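worker-03 picked up job from queue 'complexes'. Input manifest follows; two sequence lines, order preserved.
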Amino acid sequence: MAYAQPHPRLSVLSSSSQSSAEHLSPSTSSTRFSLPSAPSVHSTLVTGKPGQRPNIYDRNLNRTRVAEVSASAFAFLFSEVVQYTQKRVSGINDLERRLNTLGYRIGTRVLELTAWRAESASKTPKREIRFLPALMSIHTQVWKAVFGKSADAIEKSVENADEYMIIDNDPPIERYISVPRDMSQLSCSSFTAGIVEAVLDGLGFPARVTAHNTPNSQHPSRTTILIKLEKSVLDREELLNQKQ
Amino acid sequence: MAIYGLWVINKAGGLVYQRNFAEGLAQLTSNEYLVLAGTLHGIHAITSRLSPMGSSSGAQVIEGETFKITILLTVTGTKFVLLTSLAETVADAVLQRVYDAYADSVMKNPFHTPEMPIRSEGFDSKITALIGTGQA
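worker-03 finished. Artifact:
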C-alpha cells in the first residue's frame, strides 16, 4: 500500500479537500500571520553568553527532571490553539476532528520518545504486540510523559468487544476551560484522543479514538477517551490467544 | 462582617461581572449596575489624577458610614471591586484571590472574549468556593 500524498493527518497544512482546510493553507494565511524576521533560534543560542542553557535539541532525551514546562504557559498556548481552530471550523465535530489531528502530530513524537526512554536502558528492548499491555503503557507511561501523572482508570466496554476506555478524572488540558452551554458536547480532550490514536497507530493497533465528557459529582471535568479498535486488531489478538 | 458584592470592571469601564453575596444591598437592575460601574470607573480616573505627589494608582478604599468599597486595579486596567461591611478586614486578600481565579478560569479559557462579560462556570464555582453563595 503506497500513499500518493502524505497522510493527511501528518500534515495539517497540506491542501487536502477537507472543508475548512483552505483556511489553514499557508498561501491564504501567510500575510495575516507573517512575523517580522526574527533571528533564528540557532544563531541566538550559539552566540549567547557562555554558560547559557544549551539548545533544546542538544539536551539529553532521557533527562526528564528539568524538561517540565510551565502549566500556565501551556494553558495559554492551548487556549490560543482552541481559539485559532474554532475560527476556522464549521461545527463542533469539525473542531474536535481538528484538535484530534493536532494531537496526532504530538502522539507520533510521544511514542518515539517514550519508547526510547523506556527501552534504551533495557538490555532486552522490546515492543508491545499485545493490546492490553500497550493500553496499560499508554495509561501510565504516555500520560506521565505528556501530563506528568498517570490516567485514572481503564475500562472495557460491556456492550462492544472492540471498545476500550481510558478515564482521566481531571485532565490538565481542560483544567481552566469552561465550555459554554451551547457547545456542551465539545470535549477539548479530543486533543488527547489524537495523541492516543497516534500512539496506537504507531504500535500497530489502528483505532478510532474520541473524547467524551463524563462528569460525576466529585469530578466535574472527568473525561473518557473512547478507543474503538479496528477489526484486524481483534482478529490478531484472537490468533495470538490461540497460540498460547 | 460581611461581603456584600463583587464587581469586575474592564479597562473601558464596562461591568463584566457582578454578583451579590449577602442581604443588605438595594435591588438594582442590570442597567443600574452598569451605570454605577461606569461612574465608579470615572471617579477612579479622577482620583488617580488628584495626587499632589506625582502619579497615583487612584482610589483603593472608599468608606461610607455603613459600607466599604475596596478596589484592586491590575496592571492591565481591569478593576476588581469588593463591597463589604466596615469591619471586614480580609477584603484585600479576597480581591487578590479573585484576581488569581480570574487569571486562571477566565483568561486561560478559550471561550472567553477579552473585555466581554464573564460567563464561565469555572470562575463562578471558584468565586463560590472563595466567598460563599449568599450567607457570609
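worker-03 released lock.
The mean pLDDT of chain B is 90.
The first helix of chain B runs from residue 30 to 47.
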